[in-house]
Amino acid sequence: MNLRDESTFRQWDAETFPGHRVVLGHDKPLRLDCGVELHDFTIAYQTYGELNADKSNAIVVCHALTGDQFVADPHPVTGKPGWWEMMVGPGKPVDTNRFFVICSNILGGCMGTTGPKEINPDTGKPWGLGFPVITIADMVRAQAMLLDHLEIDELFAVVGGSLGGMQVLEWAASYPDRVFAAAPIATADHHSAQNIAFNEVGRQAIMADLDWCGGDYMSQDRWPNRGLAVARMVAHVTYLSETALQAKFGRRLQDREKITYGFDADFQVESYLRHQGSTFVERFDANSYLYITRAMDYFDLAEKHGGGSRAEVFRDTPVRFCVISFTSDWLYPTAESRRIVNALNAAAANVSFAEIEASFGHDSFLLNVPEFHRVFRGFLDGAAEHRGLPRANGGENGR
Amino acid sequence: MMTMAESHRKSIRVDLQIIADMIEPGTRVLDVGCEDGTLLDYLVHFKQVDGRGIELSMEGVNACVSAGLSVIQGDADTDLATYPDDAFDYVVLSQTLQAMVAPRAVVENLVRIGRRAIVSFPNFAYWRVRSYLFFKGRMPVSRTLPHAWYETPNIHLCTIKDFVAMCEEMGITIEHSLSLNRGGRARGVQSSPLTANLFGQQAVFLLKR
User: Fold this and answer.
1) What is the Cα Rg of chain B in Å?
2) Could you give the CA distance from residue B33 to residue B53 in angstroms, rounded to a whole number?
3) What is the mean pLDDT of the segment spanning A17-32?
């Protein structure tokens, strides 16, 4: 499958990455939902812009499943631009001339924050499957500990798409007094059967790879790249739309005139997916993929915070919400966003909700969709006005 | 000096201005069918209300949210049911009632969600509408009713008299009611309902459960 030669494959060393790292939970460990207490864990994070004097302009950006803390600067492994560079930067909707942006690698991740590929301080060996099963609430609690460390009491906003959006919802539900505005984008307040099903296919692909070694591949210097690549290929299809795939590839053949009556990548779409899979394994850890997808499957906001009732989750919430969905997103369709909005209405919360016309599927929130950027900028500007933060003074994309 | 946006806000449509004048400053307001947010923006900036909106069209919603207003994409016929009782001081339904599938149910929701409701609509008993139908024998088309019968969103047109009768049936109190003539001049409905029904091109009602 054109994967990197395994004898030369080495995972990256996150300690060499740019950005900040902090060890938390030394005196007071992080109590995880599963009951385990995590002490001396590392959070790797990036910041952009300046924190103002009264610490009222901080925005936490939450990244998605395979994202990381490098929102707006090049990825240290791939060299590709930051995953939300269109959204975050000077004069961008998340304007770093005015806002102090914090993005941390999630708990269980593999870009420097403690996760299964890092060393367990108690054993001196990689955690592997010994890493406790984490939840989205655990990820958010870890972020809250980072804010305590940074001595920031209240965030101006928490924003993010997909798994990032789930963290946003968890932030608003767990810490309503620490969040002024919240923008959950292209997300849901629980994982549907279909969401769980796709994640399970990905996990099974990884675990079926003999090089996974029951999760202990690191100490055996074997890498389940085939399984992880297949997991990525399946997931990648769910991030697109039928229209987008058809428009981009159709039935076009890859570097050939005719079909070959074989199982080589005859079609462009096959070649594209194989490429997506093989590049993904260079920057992502297989066990991290298992843990994070599990956290997403376990996510059920109403169950955790509302005794099963969505409306109870946000009763009397002071948070200003902006829920955004995309017409072609079938992974977290508009109906899921609308459920969140209805629950917020039932709680008489301050909520905006826009469904954006875009053909790129779930990935729309990461792509150049000007209408989305315009709406998102308007929400943040409006919220900033209510928070008493300075107006935009015409950055490169300023209105 | 006024900014462009502020001077634009100063001059809102006359029927919107009448609605705005009925609203106490600093209250909680829901504008149902808020279109591009003109009224909501005016109320937020000149009456310091805590304003929210619902709008059906994607363009309208995007324009509102882009302008920093709290507006959701939704349908008044189905989505008002999700709001709790007494969530707002005022719920406004401006020039939208006639496009509802179930206008009576919508009005019931308005006075349930809001302590007061403000409803404005075109009056189908306006003399020009009557004479259009009488003399031309065709469905009236005018500035306030600009669509041909086969493409109009206005599926439940009513008269001032119809609306008053429905409110009576529903046990809703009409606290204030105005009819507007073609020039935009307002007069009370209650003092002479027949005149209002004949000469009012549109009407604005302040309702209480």
Assistant:
1) 17
2) 7
3) 96
> Cα torsion at A301, A304, A308, A313 (round to 10°)?
-60
> Distance between CA B200 and CA A159 in Å, rounded?
49
B166-175 pLDDT per residue, tens: 999 999 999 9
Residue A374 to residue B62, Cβ atoms within 8 A = yes
Rounded distance between C-alpha atoms, residue A87 and residue A183, angstroms: 13
- Confirm whether the ipTM is greater than 0.85: yes
Widest pairwise Cα distance in chain A? 67
Q: In sequence order, which ranges of chain B are alpha helices (DSSP H)?
A: 4-10, 14-22, 38-46, 58-66, 76-79, 103-113, 127-131, 160-170, 193-199
What is d(CA A208, CA A212) in angstroms, rounded to the nearest whole number? 8
**A322, A346, A350: residue with CB nearest B65:** A322
- Strands A58-62 and A30-31 turn out to be unpaired
Taking the C-alpha atoms of residue A19 and residue A24, their distance in angstroms, rounded to an integer, is 16
Taken in order of first residue, the domains within chain A and their CATH numbers are: 15-192+300-387 (3.40.50.1820), 195-294 (1.10.1740.110)
Contact at CB, B66 and A375, closer than 8 angstroms: yes
Task: For chain B, list residues with pLDDT below 70.
Answer: 1-10
CB burial string A211-235: b at 16+ within 10 A, e below:
bbbebebbeeebbbbbbbbbbbbbb
- The answer to whether residue A345 neighbours chain B at the CB level (below 8 Å) is yes
- Residue A81, amino acid: P
* Domains in chain B, CATH or no CATH each: 4-208 (3.40.50.150)
Amino acid A19: pLDDT: 94
pLDDT higher than 50, residue A211: yes
CA A253 to the chain's CA centroid:
33
Bridge partners of A21, per DSSP, are A44
Give catalytic residues of A, as residue numbers: 162, 329, 362
Nearest-5° angle of CA A153, CA A159, CA A160? Answer: 135
Q: Which residue has the tokens 């942006």?
A: A101
For A390: left if phi > 0, alpha if psi spans -120 to 50, otherwise beta; the answer is: beta
Closest CA to A375 of A209, A185, A152, A206: A185
First to last CA, chain B: 43
Residue A2 has pLDDT above 90, yes or no: no
Give A379's contacts in chain B (Cβ within 8 Å): 65, 68
